[in-house]
């Protein structure tokens, strides 16, 4: 049985990747942060008491800021594959917390790579690189496009990209960068724009809210469906040679177009509900990200199947269903926590 370690297992991608690897017969180990409330809601459905026979998912406390812990974990688990998905992943928040973002999204990766080296294990390593690294470089972007990050988050990801390549070249580690364009799902964090929109559509439809406050509606993104992207991550680690790959749909969509599709799908007109709030603008914006994933298609046989229009409908349906299921306890909670004004 193959063993995998996933950092960021409690996040959107970590939860789908854990599902995929369990379905393929892996033993899955996940790094989770200690928090004062439960933070495992995305993976609770996968969890079995480890005392029971057949349990194949094991969670370990740890943090990318704690290098010694990473060494002891790797030495204890001896994984065949390590997926480094943990990060402070919110671009707007990275302007508020640039040092923390550098420490986790950037230096965290070299702590993990160094832990692999110090633990002396043979494993394959996946680094969650991002289209945000391309920043101001014009589209279409592929593996050869110059990096021009436009945020502390993008800059931290560029650092992680290069140390991953360096460990491949310096130590012969099978280490790859998946350069993933935006990918979303009903499990997307509530402060990323797609989920913010679809969650709000559900609440407006239910009569719980009237207005949605947004920033820049003109930026162009290439939005795909997260479950398909974790399949691409896995394929990168099964390849014969370590290589970096872009995963994207190649289909551009503005924030405004996503809004329009999501509101239309619920029979609403976004013009009646969407208001501008400058606090959602970023000091520097990434105007246009449109990926060219042809290398992933030819070498890995990976191709995105769901585009932004289908995605918006999937997410609106899921948020409407969640609202109907969860009843009044959930309905009474505000759209965003009162302290979360940045995203
Ligand atoms: P996400 O939902 O924000 O999940 C981030 C995960 O990292 C969570 O499990 C979080 O734990 C964990 N984490 C944060 N700081 C940590 C730390 N210091 N130590 C250990 N764990 C920590 O992100 P995602 O959308 O799944 O994305 C996965 C990865 O891909 C991230 O590295 C992201 O930057 C990158 N990426 C994402 C996209 C996208 O469109 N989704 C595109 C390109 C690249 P808690 O649950 O405790 O907060
Ligand atoms: O913003 C605009 C905003 O926060 C998308 C992360 O997964 O993908 C993600 O980063 C666009 C931006 O994602 C609001 O200005 C307008 O142009 O959903 P987002 P992101 O910044 O593209 C990359 C690939 C990653 O790697 C990251 O980890 O939407 N926008 N109004 C808004 N964005 C937010 N969040 N909230 C608004 O109200």
Largest sheet: 7 strands, parallel
Shape: globular
Fraction of residues in helix: 40-55%
> What is the CATH topology descriptor of one domain?
Rossmann fold
CATH classification class of one domain: Alpha Beta
Q: Evaluate the radius of gyration.
A: 20 Å
Record the strand order, biggest sheet. Answer: 3-2-1-4-5-6-11
Structure characterization notes:
It is a single chain. This protein has 343 residues and is α/β, with parallel strands linked by helices. It has a domain at 3-188 and 225-250 and 291-306: 3-Layer(aba) Sandwich (Rossmann fold), CATH 3.40.50.720. The protein contains ten helices and 13 strands. A seven-stranded parallel β-sheet has the order 3-2-1-4-5-6-11, sandwiched between helices. Mean pLDDT is 95; it is low at 328-343. The chain binds NADP nicotinamide-adenine-dinucleotide phosphate (NAP) and ligand F7E.
Give short descriptive properties of this protein.
10 helices, Rossmann fold, single chain, disordered C terminus, globular, binds ligand F7E, 343 residues, seven-stranded parallel sheet, two-stranded parallel sheet, alpha/beta, binds NADP nicotinamide-adenine-dinucleotide phosphate, 15% strand
Tell me the layout of helices and strands.
Elements: E1 3-7, H1 12-23, E2 27-32, E3 57-61, H2 67-77, E4 81-84, H3 91-96, H4 98-119, E5 124-130, H5 152-171, E6 174-180, E7 183-184, H6 193-205, E8 212-214, E9 220-221, E10 224-225, H7 226-238, E11 245-247, E12 253-254, H8 255-265, E13 274-276, H9 294-300, H10 308-331
Parallel strand pairs: 1-2, 1-4, 2-3, 4-5, 5-6, 6-11, 7-10, 8-13
Antiparallel strand pairs: 9-12
Helix pairs in contact: 1-7, 2-4, 4-5, 6-8, 6-10, 8-10
Bound molecules: NADP nicotinamide-adenine-dinucleotide phosphate (NAP) and ligand F7E.
